[in-house]
Amino acid sequence: MNFTSLDFLIFFLVVFALYWLARERRWQNALLLAASYLFYGWVHPWYALMLGASTLADYFIARGMTARPERKRGLLWLSLLINLGVLGFFKYYNFFGPALVSSLNSLGLEADPLLVRILLPAGLSFYTLKKLGYILDVSNGTLKPTHTLLDFALYVSFFPQIVAGPIDRPRSLLPQLEATRVWKAEYFHRAWPLLVMGLFKKIVIADTISSIVSRVFGLNHPNLVLILPATLGFTLQILADFSAYTDLSRGIALLLGFETTENFKNPYLSLSPTEFWNRWHITLSTWLRDYVFFPLRRALMRSKRALPDWVIQSAPPLVTMLVSGIWHGAGWTFIAWGGMYGVLIVLYQLAGLRGEWKPQGRIKVFFAWLVMCTFIAFGWLLFRSHSLAWAFQALFSNPFLSTLEEQAVGLTTLSLTIFYSAPLVIKLLMDRHLRPDSYFHAFYYAAATLAVIIFLNASTSDFIYFQF
Amino acid sequence: MFLILLGLAGSAWVTFRFEVPYPKPPGPQFDAKVKLTYQRAIEEKRPQLVLLGDSTLELGVDVPNLAETLNRNVYRIGIPGSASAVWYLALENNIASASYKPPYLVLFFRDTLLTRPDDRVTGRYFALVDELADRYEPLVTQLSYVQQMNPAERFLDQYLPLYGNKAQVKDDLEWQARYRPASLLLDCNQGCADIAFSAVFATENLLPEVARQSLIDVELGLYGPASEDFAYQVERSYLPEIIRLCRENGIQLILVRTRTLVYPTGQSEPAYLQKYIQDLSAYLASQGVTFLDFAHDPRLRPELFFDAVHMNDEGRVVFTQLLGEALQPILK
After folding, report:
1. Which one of A377, B220, B308, B316 has the lowest number of neighbouring Cβ atoms within 10 Å?
2. For position B269, what pLDDT does the model report?
3. B207 — contact with chain A (CB < 8 Å)?
């Protein structure tokens, strides 16, 4: 079920009404849990079964860690094995899928390729990280395990977040699930701009620009004249698409009385790779920072063999970014994308340019931004490409050999990208220079709502981050 | 407040800009121009056999060879991307309205395409429908559009001009960004830019897996629960009207089902499709319509196709020969 579908609207209205009628916290949570499993199992009930089984396993593992502290280490490994095993299997299923289907066919068993796709559960990466965060926190002693299975199961499956985050931490979401919630008009006032912007970014910007971007990225031999504007188009599309999902997720959660974590803070204004990751997919970045980067750095610093400083400084960002790349998908393009950020962070650090770095003077700031923007766009090119060879072949093609048709398509792609980025730039300027309660904001949201109506189609394509 | 004011202003603008009545009748607004190319060609060439279908016909039948085999004058109307709405309009406004009526009409389709009036009628396909539609096409409006709307959509379509004319409004908003830069910098106007898009994104330029997936996406609408029940679908489709128009104009209708090699729902033919085709076959027999089914013809081997539905050069030769052999005893 997609947030922008009619199915979801009906589903949410029913859940919303029943939820606030229930009043009692336990009933509200039970209703949300049932709704979350319905939402998640909508495409295939098997998804919900798998979610339920893995939730039960982690709930009892966490309880076991407190009840039998001497077995904590073993239980932690068991949880890691289950979670990472399932995640790894499904992430790399695309590699096994065709071979498996052909093997079954050769045995006379019918297995259609669609089966391979159905078996890949959306959102697995997101709820796995949520559960792992919980288990690691309990194992470290920084979090007491919840005694209520209902609350834990709801924390994992909370429907506004299950498919594409934000990956809220147990310390932030669990206390809210355990607290009494009473309807306040403030929820609606705060949710409305998020919902409008989410729908606007998804339906008006991301889906429209994706129709041309995906066509260029579907070409066999695109040249530079086509791939450069399409890369800029994808840079816009992925921000609009993913931040739209987060806005809708946060807006929906707010309507249910939950405060969830912000995931984007104008990431394309970053001046350094570290700053970019502090602004882009923030809940994933902080998860990786807390559970991969810091533990690895601590381990290297405490290593019995004295390691050179450059190893201690370089290895954690490189490994963390590679993990991020692999988390996004099985393929060299994702590994190269993650690896590129790892290398960039190391290089910026070696040059003394850390996350909070900001050069003096507007011209220097502009150039720092331009350089970082180029890296970001190049990263998205790798990320969206079918293969590294395909990306480099397109990038190093001779632009002077392009035909008039290719130039016309390239120019149109660029102008449409600029056209559809304009509303986001205007919003950014308004947020910076105007008070949040100004009439201009009200006018903007009204115009955005009308634009959604105009661009609304019967079917909306899935959010990009569903596949991760 | 702003939303209401802007909504009113926008609605007023749309009503005047596109000259639509308020409230407008549900469904799209067709322009008054009807493409009559096929009608003129039929009147000029006076074919004994008219072939009508989509790209599978365009690529799958060698017309001169078929004409030679049958020893008859054959004219083809193969419209890539077309489906039953366009075929009905081509029959109504070009074939049946011609001063010369061809004795035979051979209509090519795949699987459930004949009973899916909503297939390929919106988005980029709307232009195909519009160019063959007259200003008022109540049947097309009803079957392909209004019938597909839920009550909320129908209400918005009638009473909210911004929604009812969303395609035109979107095109209007986007027009400057889409066409102006190429026109100014490359001297490439709207027509030139549209041709550029068709040329750059032609099927042969796509990655094979992307081309395959695009075809699956397009074909997916033909399969699934909404298509399964023939008895329910046929009454909501153009098929009875196509049969009636042919009968009233003295045209013998022959329906030809072409082969689908790979189904979007899997490798093999969906189980319900066999029942659907049996029902279709019985219905056509009851209406006196000849039905030729090539979907399971073993002579149309997989290597004769270049994708799931289109035949390659060798396939065209084989299929034309098979079609000729099948048509020969039917033609008087």
Report:
1. B220
2. 78
3. yes
